[in-house]
Amino acid sequence: MEFTQDYSPIGNVYVSLIFAAIPIVVLFVMLGALRIAAHWAAAASLLSALLLAILFYGMPTVLALSATTFGAVFGLWQLAWIVVNAIFLHNLTVETGKFDVVRDSLASLTTDRRIQALIIAFSFGALLEGVAGAGAPVAITAAIMVGLGFAPLFAASLALLANTAPVAFGALGLPILALGPLVAPIVGADPEITTNTLAAMVGRQVPIFAVIIPGFMVFVMAGWRGMMEVLPAVLTAGISFAVVQFLVSNFIGPNLVDVLAALVSLAALYLLLRIWQPATPWRFEGEVESGASPTAAETPSPAHGSGSVLLAFSPYMIVVVVVIVALIGTIFPNIPAALNVTELLGKASITFPWPGLNEQVIRVPPITTEPSPYPAEFEFTPFLVSGTLVLIAAITSGFVLGVGPAAQLRIYGRTLNQVKLAVLVIALILALAFVMNYSGATSTLGLAFAGTGLLFPFFSAFIGWLGVFLTGSDTSSNSLFGPMQTITAQQLHIEPALAGATNSSGGVMGKMISPQNLAVGAAAIGQAGQEGNIFRMTLKWSLILTTAVGVLAMIQAYVIPWIIPTIGG
């Protein structure tokens, strides 16, 4: 049963745009205006997309339902599997008390609130984002800062602001891993090559903001003068993170970008604070001053021994080792076959056409140069998918921390219950994205946005920003709008890698105002119901930073286009 896409069912792409945008509007209104729970909003949006596909675009019901199940299964396997196991890893550290050791060791490095915010909200928050994502960095870092004496709403706002630069590569590269396979069939390239190219392009955008965000945070806290007083720490945190983020994303891949960058940033700050401290420790107004800053020798030492601290950080190090070993063939393509664990694990992978959908949808010009079937293939990679690697690392970490099999099963069961709604949202959002892609609705949106012409790279950042505001996830935003951005770029003869990357880079700036993340931040500090106040504190920062991403994309598109990698080139 074949279905040929029609991008202007009623003869005009801009009028068709009104209909094509209905699922997005439903999601926006239910989340942003009506404040309905994300899973209900996603379900309603998916239902509207199905009705749109069948009644407006004329897609056969069987194909529409097949696209729905394809998207849901893809979301569960590629995305939700990471979230579940990453949260399981974190819960193991909490259960064993090792997370308290991590918190105390971070707080002991300095008494200056500005630098504490850099260490906890920016560097350690980036580590949590790199491993887990899914709101965990905001909740955990905000709670730690409140425990240290930060004002609750301010702590939540700082945590949200800091949780920007690392988001594009969060949860072991999840947003890019989701975007690559969606963009690949549109541009006619291999999914792995597409994913790595998009990672490289994002790695040529977000590191600039990784340098800016630490200074921006301290400026918000203490003003320009207060920021300049701790400039060595600001530059150390931001530059060390940005350099590693660029190098790993461009020369290794998306999986370990944030984890390695955060670890280097934490280490760099630790070494700096051994030889330098601000002249006077900064406090919030009303806090008791403690006099001059301690010297390096007098800096508070952790309440835990070095062995205990090393053990507490071991789960994060184990994740790094497991991922590097499993993906060693990708990291080092010329490695001897006997050492190529990647090739060995990949032998268990299976790729099969999705029943009732593969090549049953025909894409036509101007989306393609000539009518061509739209592939729908599912790749089952049991041992190379990121979620499995995190699970292996988590189980290993559990034994290292002294947690036996029975206790691990109990913690895993609690984790499943904890993330069940998040998993449901992921499945629904990916189902929505696939229905819109295969029905042609995404292409209608893309053709309409092509009308912005030369300004499209600027608006591309705000499209991604809107997607994260709506869904609370850069992964979901990439799934919703990444294909549309790619199609639009093709229509305007702009390199698709720039559009896909800018969707992700602009999207991260919307995370600090997303209703879901505001709720996470407020709940973590015991301020449920104060989301509106946090929103008002973060909105202007979000708009300023998204505008900066848009300007950067314009510069990259028209002033320094050589910086943009070509997918498959």
3D structure, described in words:
- With 569 residues, the chain is mainly α.
- It has one domain (3-284, 292-563).
- It is built from 24 helices and five strands.
- A three-stranded mixed beta sheet has the order 1-3-4, with no helix packed on it.
- A hairpin with an 8-residue loop joins strand 3 (361-363) and strand 4 (372-374).
- Helix 6 (113-131) packs antiparallel against helix 13 (257-275), helix 8 (152-162) packs parallel to helix 24 and helix 10 packs antiparallel against helix 12.
- The protein is globular and about 70 Å long.
- The model is unreliable at 289-301 (pLDDT under 50).
Domain module tally: 1
Helix proportion: 55-70%
For the sheet with most strands, the description reads: 3 strands, mixed
Q: What sort of overall outline do the alpha carbons produce when their principal axes are compared?
A: globular
Uncertain runs with pLDDT below 50, 5 residues or more? Answer: 289-301
The number of E-state strands comes to 5
Q: What sequence of helices (H) and strands (E) makes up the elements? A: EHHHHHHHHHHHHHHHHEEEEHHHHHHHH
